[in-house]
Protein 1
Amino acid sequence: MMRFLCAALLVTAASPAFAACGSAGMPPEMFKAFVTGTQEALNEHGFRAGIADGKMGSRTQSAVRAYQRAAKLPVDGCVSQELLDHLNFAQPKVYAPGAKRP
């Protein structure tokens, strides 16, 4: 019983930084478009997400986390509508340290 309780507490206390990212029930084509748009915007802001291929790889996830930290957003490394909106519309724009600004 105690072992089960400890395991349950560990699962519920997991940090959101390690939460699994999902497609939030989106069709695969739509999720790929979100990831591609996010990669493009991250690259434009100097966050080095790699090639905009719509694949949620470790480089993209690291770039998302770096942007989230710089923008003072909750850091989970996940792509979402909110993240893409922030990248495209937030003022002032958030850039990676040392990134060329337009």
Note: DSSP finds four helices and no strands in the chain.
Protein 2
Amino acid sequence: MSDIRIATAEDQILLDKEAKYCSYGDTVHYIEPPRIFSRCEGSYVWDTEDQAYLDLQMWYSAVNFGYANPRLNNALKQQIDTLPQIASQYLHKGKIELSEMIAVDAKKKFGLDGRVHFNVGGSQSIEDSLKVVRNASNGKSLMFAFEGGYHGRTLGASSITSSFRYRRRYGHFGERANFIPFPYHFRGPKGMTKEEYGSHCVQQFARLFETEYNGVWDPKTNQCEYAAFYVEPIQGTGGYVIPPMNFYRELKQVLDQHGILMVSDEIQMGFYRTGKLWSIEHFDVQPDVIVFGKALTNGLNPLGGIWAREELINPKVFPPGSTHSTFASNPLGTAVGLEMFKMTSEVDYGAMVMAKGKYFLEGLQDLQKRFPIIGDVDGLGLALRCEICGPDGFTPDKATLDYMVEEGMKGDMIVDGQKLGLILDVGGYYKNVITLAPSLEISYPEIDLGLKLLEQLLVRATTR
């Protein structure tokens, strides 16, 4: 095990400048000193000393198709040489064709006509969805959302994110949320199967509508105080918690009975992370709104957006000017998005991701058998979780995971004669979960390498 890493003289100069000139409000220093990176390719990034790190979080699932993906990079370069810029009040081919691809796909899968609206990223697209929802519900500003849910840090998005720390200093801005327990089976009541616990959570939610005295429903007018339920089908920052397959189908029945819209936040799990274009597809329900971002452009452009049912977003109910961004539907972003859709249509991406995810999960399950501090592993496609606990295999152990993250960033592990670092992401209600979001292009040998590196970190953690 190496000593604490010391920044090079050149890096230290940059870190001193960062300390003086950069806002710390838009970043997090998980390790000290922070790494400064210089290049990337595939599943790897290299620091200024040209030390390679295998990345198993890929910019919080924004770079689903690998760093510096040649095909997507070339689409961006070609667009720069033709129509790199145009005001969003004007039309260009990319916007129209990308909207068509998303809307036609939704029609095929959900049987619903709808339209696509773009913005410059995930949080901003959540804001747009809130406008659509409030407009459709005659101005209702109360929403349901999940405990452990994360929807962004703009004012509206943080209001429906369950972490109070994101809004503590800013208060609420219009929206407020009633946070409902998510079926987190590993930490749920004992004695229930995963499916039974999912049904139990739905039944507890349905109690809110039993009488007017349960708080949200007026049986005399058949009106609910809440406009929509914002869901991450697979919780992201909450720790890649995967609900039982019956859960959303039963939840949607309750929502439809009471006129409550379902908004599926696919910002982190969209674009084949779970083996489907949208993670909600696994659960046999029809969402009313889908919010997307991140991997639409493989992280090359901050383009996001929403798809919504025709009744919610047609020009009569949501006319021009309802919301706007200077850079919305910009041609650079839509060009990459179009190429991403073409690329993923040429091979069975879903089958490929599910096969790799199954292989990776089996490796994690093997580690779990050999290391009692792994309390839970789970996965859907290449959205995988590994929960680090105390010796009892249940008590959350944030300190040990923090240690593992720091050790991985030292870049001093040796596998088959190669010196490597490992980039992990931390999530979960107790910040004790490794949330694994590798490149969807990751090779099987790279999965094996990632498992070997994880094993070395677990050995260090349990023998320190």
Note: The chain is about 35% helix and 15% strand.
